[in-house]
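Problem: given the chain below (354 residues), write out its structure.
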Amino acid sequence: MIKSENPKKTGEEIRKIQLTGKSTYIVSLPKAWVTRMKLNAGDQLAISESGISLTLTPKALVNPERPAEATIKISQKDNPDTVMRKIIALYLIGYNLIRVKTSGENITSLQRNLLKDFTRRKLVGVETISDSENEIVLQILVSYPELSVENALRRMCLITASMHSDALKALRESDEKLAQNVITLDDEVDRFGLYVIRQLKMAVQNERILREIGLSNPKDCLGYRVIVKFVERIADHAVKIAENVVAIGGSIETPVLKRISEMSLFSMSIFNDAVKSLCEKNYLLADSVISKAKAVSLMESRLTKLIYKRPDASKTSSLRMIVESIRRTIEYASDIAEIVLNLNANQIIEDSFR
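Solution.
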């Protein structure tokens, strides 16, 4: 890496830029590094830009050879959940072809049906391309430019916001069917979540993939990974709201319902602004989200008192759980905004020079 920093830093060398001809600038390479990389005159280097720095990588290492195919050996005694976790692990690492096979016995119908259903519901871009008595072959068909990390994350957020809104609509209208639909949608959020994590894991190791999925700095991958977790948590709380709507099994008093709806609208406003600040890389908006989110404690306290004043105590527990899930949604949205601050801290520095 060639960059202008303190020349006393351990392992760093300072080299002068030289002009050869009229328009070509050159910098000599440290002999020790060239030897360690086993390079010779005429070998090619890939040069990638990251902020103010340039990274030099031997071309042979830019796309290191790795097995595109992995095989999982299973038996009829294996727990299907254990098999699924193995598939997820290989999917996240970046394998493009996954074989699930047995030795000397057939895959059980239960294992086969669960595996197919699981990959359909949970993994983006995975298709079953071969299915025999003792082997199932899964291929990951999706490529990076088709669905960037930001687009996949935005899709996750849209589904999550829809889940929350539908869960509250189900509460207002005592619609258990709609509540059940919300619970089912959680699989879609998980699908995109696993896809984003797969992309981030591969991008950290490969500068080209990093650019292809729409990011500019490997350090951003950690922030996006944590944001994915927070969005999944918000979706989980939408599911909990829906489950409590089913548990209530009927209508609730208008004053309580009105206050819950107001708190819900506030939570979605906070969440949507947090997502907007992420998509627009807007430091000031993210900071505003964090400030507004602090109002949640007072809102929850007032609503809780109103719930406990109700004459019918049979639904109190479920209502309290709904309020808690809305509060947690606001807190997770605030956490997302805090990560946006960290990802865009350079805006503070730029503003100070205007």
